[in-house]
Every structure is written in structure tokens, then in C-alpha cells.
Write a structure and sequence with these properties.
Order of helices and strands: EEEH
Number of strands: 3
Strand order of the largest sheet: 1-2-3
Bound molecules: zinc ion
Strand content: 15-25%
Number of helices: 1
Mean pLDDT: 93
């Protein structure tokens, strides 16, 4: 069995995990939080989806980067 490390994106406004790319604006992806409606553009990253266990999702929440502090 092998494990794969991935990054999870959370909304910093409401801590939701329901973040998606809702549209493209001139080559930039528009991140959109489905929970609170916050949007923001990104230029050089995109998102992919896969299924993870609740335990792994909690690990992602516990290790998330905070303002002024890098990811654990
Ligand atoms: Zn949000």
C-alpha cells in the first residue's frame, strides 16, 4: 500500500472545504467558496479532486497554514 500526499484548499473566510474554480478570467482561475461566496483569482495553480477519509481531511485541517506561519 502506498500513500500519496496532496494539498487541500480551505476557505480562510469561513473554513469551508467547498472551494472550487467557478470560472476563468483572462487566463486566471477564479476560486469560489460555495459556502460563503468568497472569490479570488489565482494565476499559476489549479485544483483537482479525489476522495479522502474523514481522518485524512482532519489531518489536512490540523496542518493548514495560518497567516504568518507555514504549513506544518
Ligand atoms: Zn468560505
Amino acid at each position: 500500500m502506498s500513500a500519496n500526499f496532496v494539498s487541500v484548499i480551505f476557505c480562510r473566510n469561513c473554513y469551508s472545504r467547498y472551494v472550487e474554480i467557478s470560472e476563468w478570467e483572462g487566463g486566471r482561475a477564479v476560486l469560489h467558496c460555495r459556502t460563503c461566496g468568497t472569490t479570488e483569482e489565482i494565476a499559476h495553480f489549479t485544483l483537482g479532486r479525489c476522495r479522502v477519509t474523514n481522518t485524512e481531511l482532519q489531518n489536512a485541517r490540523d496542518s493548514q497554514a495560518k497567516r504568518g506561519k507555514a504549513e506544518k
